[in-house]
Amino acid sequence: TRAEQLLESAGLPVLRSSEVSPEYLGQPEGLRRFLKEIRDGKNGDYSVYRVTENGKISCSCFWQRDGGFYMSYVCCDPAQKGKDRVSIVETYGIQDWDLSEKGNFYYRTFWEDDQHYANYNRIRTMQPDEMLYGMTRGYILPVGYTGVNLFLLDWDSHSMENVCINDLWDCLEGARTGQRPDPEALGFAYDRDRGCFDVPADRFEAVLLNRFPLTLEEFRQLTDYSPQTNTYPWIPLESELAILYSHAILEPEVTACRENGDGSLTLTVEVDSTDWKTDALFIHELTIRPLEDETCQYLGNKMIKVDRETLPLSLSRAEVRGNG
After folding, report:
1. DSSP H helical ranges for 193-255
2. In what order do the strands lie in the sheet with 68-76?
3. Which of 102, 198, 205, 216 might form a disulfide with 209, Cβ 3.0–4.6 angstroms?
4. Shortest CA distance to 250 belongs to which of 267, 280, 271, 270?
5. 3-state secondary structure string, 167-203?
6. Using one digit for the tens of pLDDT, what is the confidence trace for 171-230?
């Protein structure tokens, strides 16, 4: 933004924002030097500036004195005058921090497991690849990892029996329309015996059928299609069910892309977590085929690095609700 450019022209370290990638520190060398000095026990300070979406300017000043590491935070509104210009002035003790191999500066100012915040904040010191992050936004984020298992299992087009396609309907319908579907507003019938809503076949298939390399017959076998009502079962991810899927904050990022001989792409997805101060809580390889409408067909997934204790639940919504 213009404000970010003005701050940088004054020689100030600024978090650069972008519509196509996460924010990152544009001039990271000073922060890296400062953190090295902190590790060596030296006193010092370093400030990072950020322009918010509503035009306010914040400054996070990291400083160490006699072994104590702190962050002072100031936020001001250039549109205001006098004392109203400064809205927030706070100082926190930094409980823990690290600079990862991927150049992520993680720091914690609150006690661990405070449910109101991630355990750690993160400042990126490396610019994300815009093309790869575009794949993250287009192919990974619309699905995610909560209440869906597409990215949490090993599968291909010949072994999809454990992938719950039905749970994907609201994710991809929401990505298409811009909001999660409301079954009552849409007039979907509720099946009390099975505890699910019945989605009309034309609406269900329009969202999901072309997203997998399946014939209509194969698709219907995998999704419990009802020929009597011409519908598919779907369980919304409502709050009580979402709680049962509770897991660490996850931030997936496509870090590599390999083009295959058949025109498909294999993406390496590293799932970071600001709760666990780690660049890759788990890693999976997702194979896709891009479609003309900028969506994709999902062809397979392979788990590369897995810690079962921190991996989100990979059970279907029906299974989790039954176990809950």
Report:
1. 201-208, 216-222, 239-244
2. 44-51, 57-65, 68-76, 86-93
3. 205
4. 271
5. HHHHHHHHHHHCCCCCCCCCCCEEECCCCEEEEEHHH
6. 999 999 999 999 999 999 999 998 999 999 999 999 999 999 999 999 999 999 999 999
